[in-house]
Specification:
This protein has one domain (9-126): Response regulator (Rossmann fold), CATH 3.40.50.2300. It is α/β, with parallel strands linked by helices. The longest helix has 14 residues, at 115-128. The chain has a five-stranded parallel sheet with strand order 2-1-3-4-5, with helices on both faces. Helix 2 (41-51) packs parallel to helix 3. The protein has helices spanning 17-29, 41-51, 67-73, 94-102, 115-128, and strands at residues 9-13, 33-38, 55-58, 84-89, 107-110.
Length: 137
């Protein structure tokens, strides 16, 4: 009998109310703990810094500011992100992906086609660091 594992903790930065609700439901189904969410860059930056989630999921287009503002605020220190960024956006053309890669982003998903791939990535991340996720049902 060991100490129960905690959930992977995520913060969501998304300005579409409909997609945000769907994403929160999907994350809950996968037992990913959502510690907060915002629809603009400044709130996201302030809350991510205070809440220190394991990952943050960010769209490029936001109500105020953009996802790159959030990514820059948490750029890697000594080559390591704290927390790990995941871009989930409809802005998936090469210039956007290249800009994110230049900031060190490893995970970039098309929100209209790759949400379930992103969820699998989150499950894998949780397993990789020994956290509880949806695979333990």
């Amino acid at each position: 009998m060991g100490v129960p594992a905690r959930q992977l903790r995520a913060y969501v930065v998304e300005d579409s109310t409909i997609l945000l609700r769907r994403l929160l439901d999907l994350l809950d189904e996968e037992r990913i703990g959502v510690v907060g969410h915002a629809d603009n860059a400044s709130t996201a930056i302030r809350e991510i810094a205070a809440l220190l989630p394991d990952v943050f999921i960010v769209d490029i287009a936001l109500r105020r500011g953009n996802g790159f503002d959030v990514l820059r605020a948490f750029a890697p220190k000594n080559g390591v992100w704290r927390p790990t960024p995941i871009v989930l956006s409809n802005y998936t053309t090469k210039p956007y992906r290249t800009a994110a890669e230049r900031l060190g982003v490893e995970y970039y998903f098309d929100k209209s086609r790759e949400i379930f791939t992103m969820l699998k990535t989150l499950q894998s991340m949780a397993r990789g660091i020994g956290l509880r996720n949806g695979s333990e049902r």
